[in-house]
Every structure is written in structure tokens, then in C-alpha cells.
UniProtKB/TrEMBL annotation:
This is Large ribosomal subunit protein uL22c. SUPFAM superfamilies: Ribosomal protein L22 (SSF54843). Pfam families: Ribosomal_L22. One of its GO terms (molecular function) is structural constituent of ribosome. NCBIfam families: rplV_bact.
Length: 158
């Protein structure tokens, strides 16, 4: 079996909520509203929406932002929800006793929710650098760039 190796992203952070007791359809109804929005705007939307699925998603977005600020040092104002997905998981099946010795099945569906936040300040700096290079009289030959090779012992190369 071939395992896919994930690329290590330096600008994104995620939070994963597993076995959340809400149906995937109801969670997707909320996720579709916050996909592509900024972190602060998503929190405001989740606080004001009347659905029951908003609270666990709110906690996940907040947790992903805490991971971003603590682990990678990103500012919360630069975070955008780049990916938000809901996967359907196990259905918990119970039997409720009814009259005359009968039973009634109860199905509680669960889902996994993944929230990925991305830092857009890196892309803004990159665009500013490209704009700087497009100015007349500016080229890479005029600038003295020193790069560090990650895979060696720390020697400099040009």
C-alpha cells in the first residue's frame, strides 16, 4: 500500500473534531456559510446563527486559531478559513422501549469536522516583493540575495 505523504505547510493550521453528535447534513449547512471568510467574521456569524451545529463548529474555529497563535505565532487578524469539511461517520443505534414489549430504533448520526486556517500575511508580503521586482531599474542582479540551504549543514550558497 502506498501512503501519501502530506506536504508540510508553513502558512496553514488545522483543528479536527471527531465523532461530533450532529448529522453531516446539518453541519454542512453551517460550514457553507463560513468557508472562505476571515476568522473574526466567521466567529460573529457562528455566534448569531440559530442552528444547534454552530456551537461545536465555533469551538473548532476558536481552537484552530489558538493552535495558529500558539504553535506558529500567527496573528488572528490575518487568518482566513481556507478549508472546512464535514465527513459523515458512525451512526449510534439504540433501542427505545415501547408499549407491549416492542422497541423503537433511535439512530444518532455523528460526523468529523475539519477546519483549516491559513495566514494570508505571507501572500501579501510575496505580492509586495513581486511588485518591487516589477519596478523599473530593479532586478535580482542588483540585489545581494543570500539563501540558506535547509538540507545541508548550514553552509551559505548563492
Amino acid at each position: 500500500m502506498i501512503k501519501k505523504r502530506k506536504k508540510k505547510s508553513y502558512t496553514s493550521v488545522y483543528a479536527l473534531g471527531q465523532y461530533i453528535s450532529i448529522s453531516a447534513h446539518k453541519a454542512r449547512r453551517v460550514i457553507d456559510q463560513i468557508h472562505g471568510r476571515s476568522y473574526e467574521e466567521a466567529l460573529m456569524i457562528l455566534e448569531l446563527m440559530p442552528y444547534r451545529g454552530c456551537y461545536p463548529i465555533f469551538k473548532l474555529v476558536y481552537s484552530a486559531a489558538a493552535n495558529a497563535s500558539h504553535n506558529k505565532g500567527f496573528k488572528e487578524t490575518n487568518l482566513v478559513i481556507s478549508k472546512a469539511e464535514v465527513n459523515q461517520r458512525n451512526t449510534v443505534k439504540k433501542l427505545k422501549p415501547r408499549a407491549r414489549g416492542r422497541s423503537y430504533p433511535i439512530k444518532r448520526s455523528t460526523c468529523h469536522i475539519t477546519i483549516v486556517l491559513e495566514d494570508i500575511s505571507f501572500y501579501q508580503q510575496y505580492e509586495e516583493y513581486l511588485m518591487y521586482l516589477e519596478k523599473p531599474g530593479c532586478s535580482n542582479e542588483n540585489r545581494n540575495l543570500t539563501c540558506y540551504d535547509r538540507y545541508s549543514s548550514g553552509d551559505l550558497w548563492d
